């Protein structure tokens, strides 16, 4: 399986300038090649070959005054740019032939594109230094915030500058079967709720970590400030950039939280079951916004691929008896309950049921998992509410799996 790992980069002014040159050169070569091919096409000439373009647009161009600056950038980066164009053409032609979904013809890249990228392949002799820096030819040793460990050595790194002006190193790594974890006993049902981010069939209630709540608060404030600024003023532009940065921070913090929680749950349980979110039907209601904000689908996707990677079972259950209508202890269905009813007593067996935990146990049971529906799991007073404590995303990286659950 191929997985993509992204890490934030922190660059010096000199490194930023060198990288800007690499973005620029890669873009120019891409555009020159695109122009050469489009010209050939409009003149009815044969499609120029990549090898010829490489010779003409890179090797020979470096000796001309107009393109001499191409020599300042690793040649491998420029060749990669040609290969990227090849891939764009191939996808376009395959789309026309019906081999894949149709997509537009390759387009010229612009300096003003919000996302700038440059790719270094193994040939470019990039490396990770013993000090943990990313060494790129003709750019330097870049500081990386390693928030996770790479499972294997990647061959390619893509350096990205996003719309908020941040830099990332993105690695694609191949993961093998050696990652399958030793078997464990627990199996788990998860109810993704609104009161808590997730409630587990073992009685654990998981809330968003403090660093995420704080980032969300800052975003709200930035948005309020922006709405108060006069249109067209320079203050408004500053405020807009602030909002963009706050947005990026919330997205980062949320992704980090999802990674940590999903890794922890997959490590500690042999099987994990969730309800299909489409079936859950919340996305169509007024709760849609909070569903969106909670980012459940991103979280569920992580559970799914991590289960595959670590040799665990992942079950997504479809429509079944509504989770809140069935007693997870005796199975009696006693009808719908309004949303404000959080705890009730089963009229049949007398169990005191916590709405969320009851739902999580029902999810596990519907998936055929062996969760024991013992009293402690559904009875509220014995359930322990926990708060997820992770280190601040912006201070120190946390290795995945080091997420601590602490009883509050
Ligand atoms: Zn019952």
Number of helices: 10
Global outline: elongated
**C-alpha Rg (nearest Å):** 26 Å
Low-confidence parts: 374-408
Give the % helix: 25-40%
Following the backbone from N to C, one meets helices and strands in this order, namely EHHHEEEEEEEEEHHEHHHEEEHHEE
Care to describe what's here?
This protein has helices at residues 13-42, 50-60, 75-96, 210-228, 234-268, 277-280, 288-294, 296-310, 355-366, 375-378, and strands spanning 2-10, 116-120, 127-128, 134-136, 140-145, 157-161, 167-174, 187-191, 198-200, 205-206, 271-275, 313-317, 343-345, 352-354, 386-389, 404-407. It is an alpha+beta fold. The chain folds into 2 domains: 2-174, no CATH class; 186-208 and 269-407, no CATH class. The strands form 4 sheets. A 7-stranded antiparallel β-sheet has the order 2-6-7-1-5-4-3. Strands 10-9-8-11-12 form a 5-stranded mixed β-sheet. A hairpin with a 5-residue loop joins strand 3 (127-128) and strand 4. The protein is elongated, with a radius of gyration of 26 Å. The two termini are 38 Å apart. 29% of the residues are buried. Mean pLDDT is 82; it is low at 374-408. Zinc ion binds next to loops. Residues 296-363 form the Cas12f1-like TNB domain. In the N-terminal section; belongs to the transposase 2 family. In the C-terminal section; belongs to the transposase 35 family. Residues 1-43 form the Transposase putative helix-turn-helix domain.
């Amino acid at each position: 399986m191929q997985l993509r790992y992204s890490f934030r980069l922190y660059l010096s002014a000199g490194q930023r300038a060198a990288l800007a040159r690499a973005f620029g050169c890669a873009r120019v070569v891409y555009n020159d090649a695109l122009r050469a091919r489009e010209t050939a096409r409009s003149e009815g000439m044969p499609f120029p070959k990549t090898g010829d373009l490489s010779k003409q647009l890179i090797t020979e161009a470096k000796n001309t005054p107009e393109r001499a600056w191409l020599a300042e950038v690793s040649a491998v980066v420029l060749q990669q740019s040609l290969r990227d164009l090849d891939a764009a053409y191939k996808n376009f032609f395959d789309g026309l032939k019906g081999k894949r979904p149709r997509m537009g013809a390759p387009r010229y890249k612009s300096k003003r594109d919000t996302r700038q990228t440059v790719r270094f392949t193994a040939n470019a002799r990039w490396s990770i230094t013993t000090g943990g820096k990313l060494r790129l030819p003709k750019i330097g040793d870049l500081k990386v915030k390693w928030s996770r460990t790479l499972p294997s050595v990647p061959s390619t790194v893509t350096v990205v500058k996003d719309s908020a002006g941040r830099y990332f190193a993105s690695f694609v790594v191949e993961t093998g079967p050696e990652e399958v974890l030793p078997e464990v006993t627990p199996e788990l049902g998860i109810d993704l709720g609104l009161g808590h981010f997730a409630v587990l069939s073992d009685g654990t209630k998981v809330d968003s970590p403090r660093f995420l709540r704080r980032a969300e608060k800052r975003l709200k404030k930035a948005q309020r400030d922006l709405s108060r600024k006069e249109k067209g003023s320079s203050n408004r532009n500053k405020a807009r950039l602030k909002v963009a940065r706050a947005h990026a921070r919330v997205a980062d913090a949320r992704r980090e939280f999802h990674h940590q929680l999903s890794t922890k749950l997959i490590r500690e349980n042999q099987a994990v079951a969730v309800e299909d979110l489409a079936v859950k039907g919340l996305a169509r209601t007024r709760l849609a916004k909070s569903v969106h904000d909670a980012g459940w689908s991103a979280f569920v996707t992580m559970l799914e691929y991590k289960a595959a990677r670590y040799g665990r079972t992942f079950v997504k259950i479809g429509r079944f008896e509504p989770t809140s209508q069935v007693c997870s202890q005796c199975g009696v269905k006693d009808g719908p309950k309004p949303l404000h009813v959080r705890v009730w007593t089963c009229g049949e067996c007398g169990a005191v049921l916590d709405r969320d935990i009851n739902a999580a146990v029902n999810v596990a049971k519907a998936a055929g998992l062996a969760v024991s529906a013992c009293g402690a799991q559904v009875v509220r007073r014995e359930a322990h509410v926990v708060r997820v404590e992770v280190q601040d995303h912006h201070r120190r990286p946390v290795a995945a799996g080091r997420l601590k659950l602490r009883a509050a």
